[in-house]
Amino acid sequence: MTKSDYAASGVDIDAGNRAVELMKSAVKSTYGPEVLAGIGAFGGLFDAAALQNMRHPVLVASTDGVGTKVKLAAQAGRYRSIGHDIVNHCVNDILVQGARPLFFLDYFATSRLLPEVVAEVVGGIAEACRQVHCALLGGETAEMPGVYAPAEFDVAGTIVGVMERERILPRPDLRPGDVLIGLRSSGPHTNGYSLIRKIFADVPLDTFFPALDSTLAEALLAPHRQYYSLLAPLLNDQAGVDNPRQWPIQALAHLTGGGFLENLPRVFPPGVGAEVRLGSWPLPPLFQLIQQRGEVDAVEMYRVFNMGIGMVIVTAPENVKAVRQALGEDTWEIGQLVAGENVRLVPERNDYAC
Amino acid sequence: MTKSDYAASGVDIDAGNRAVELMKSAVKSTYGPEVLAGIGAFGGLFDAAALQNMRHPVLVASTDGVGTKVKLAAQAGRYRSIGHDIVNHCVNDILVQGARPLFFLDYFATSRLLPEVVAEVVGGIAEACRQVHCALLGGETAEMPGVYAPAEFDVAGTIVGVMERERILPRPDLRPGDVLIGLRSSGPHTNGYSLIRKIFADVPLDTFFPALDSTLAEALLAPHRQYYSLLAPLLNDQAGVDNPRQWPIQALAHLTGGGFLENLPRVFPPGVGAEVRLGSWPLPPLFQLIQQRGEVDAVEMYRVFNMGIGMVIVTAPENVKAVRQALGEDTWEIGQLVAGENVRLVPERNDYAC
Fold first, then answer.
1. Between B49, B62, B192, which is nearest A138 by CB?
2. Residues in chain B within 8 Å Cβ distance of A261
3. What's the pLDDT tens digit per position in A153-170?
4. Parallel, antiparallel, or unpaired for β A57-65 and B44-47?
5. How distant is the Cα of B300 from the closest Cα of chain A, in angstroms?
6. pTM confidence score
7. ipTM field
8. Which domains does chain A have, with CATH numbers?
9. Closest alpha carbon within chain A to B264
């Protein structure tokens, strides 16, 4: 056997160090005064003294990936939006319980570390963190030849947020008659990409689709929308309302993998299900294109995709108007809670029957 | 194009759900009363009221992977120890700053989700979490055909711990003359596996090596040792000592990727370096075997591997005896701090010259 060193085995420690240099300033741009130590330390240090001014702090944490959307990003050579995807997905996941982001950590692994690619992804992560005042407290980049397919990468992230215990969502007293308000998604977000890639396998990513008014790459790589900036004011306001039943936001559901059918029930108490009225919101052209080209069963579409609704608010009927006014455009009344356990998809207009 | 559904595209939502069922009880076995919501929720909820009884709480967080050790585990069909690897790596990373683990989240991604494999990995994660009283608060399993090479998987994890601000390590007043005490590692831990795999590429994993007194698989897959259980009593004791310079543990360095040469300097103040005396501890046979078979340069060995020392304590000369007595066997005085910036490897005996 010939003389070995680490670089010859496919791992380049210097490339890793260069990647760290490239992303340092982006990472530091997310630091508030709470960050006592970040990049370069074994662990990131976050000052938690502010939690001592809370009534009863609860930490909320979530880890997620962005699925095979990373494969499309690698193919298209567009990496920055993936950074937004992973952060926004995580922000939304803890938002549904009512939490405010504190800090985020990322994991980036690939077959061969290209410092410029890492810097793009982490640059996107830092941008998205800044938008929600969240510190990018740490991360790990790993070069793993043989585990990842050539030129592929994966990215995962973990967010930690905080909230008052008494403000935890969903409220346990959701009831039939409560209304579902849907918020517009920016695309498939980070779910259903294995199916999407199969359906568009023979279509170059730079193909322009008139129905989408964009190239396929632009439509498919649109970053996951974050709902924290939109909903935080409502959540803050309702913190001053004594009777929880009067809170405008009784529950939130983030429509990720499993779509409507599996995510809505996660926030309902036993004996409560939902009716979702198909056609009560505009179905984005991309989902129509996916369904047609793939000949995907309509119910399957609602189990895999968000179908144009990225986040669902549950509110009492008397609060629907106020909530929709507070949020502005791109909200729709898409259904209500009913007795039962399941989510039923109810056709509202003939062209959406399923 | 033929009719598509998600299973046909290589993603099996039901397999994912079955994996969740299999690991539920393992995950729940890690819950203490602080866990208000875990598996099944969008985010895990951890009661942080106890932080309000602290003087000045600091949260410490770290994300890590286990490198291409996962590839060996996949090859050998041994998955449980990888769970210990990822947790223990993270536990050690925040331990070096003095932190106690609160909760952990895992990320598991693979080309094809085999529920039994996920259950083994997560079972190992849960076991390792229980050993340090850390809640396995959340996680994500992802099936990503095309991103991961066939039959490969990756695992990453994030730990969050807590400590008093005034107890943060390393102490800023480390000085020349302070002593390095090395603690035994259990093997290469989670670093250097790309090189190891290259060197042993032509050796079946079940080959018995008399020098190792075990098969290659057993030696290479020995789980990363955690040092929290060993060091927590010392850290707790020194919390009662007013003068920080008298604390037995002035600093800790976890010897991960980059080995001695890159990890030790991470905890030193400017102008302080170290001399490490080669031969002052027994070099485990596995590292000798790696060096010989791979004809690896001696200095490169100390830049890639821990060489039998997984954690280094920095202590004042007058505390060396007490620290070593408190920790029992398998500790060695391996060097000291010196003026300068670098880590120098100093041969102590001829057979370790480099």
1. B62
2. none
3. 999 999 999 999 999 999
4. antiparallel
5. 7
6. 0.93
7. 0.92
8. 13-167 (3.30.1330.10), 179-352 (3.90.650.10)
9. A42
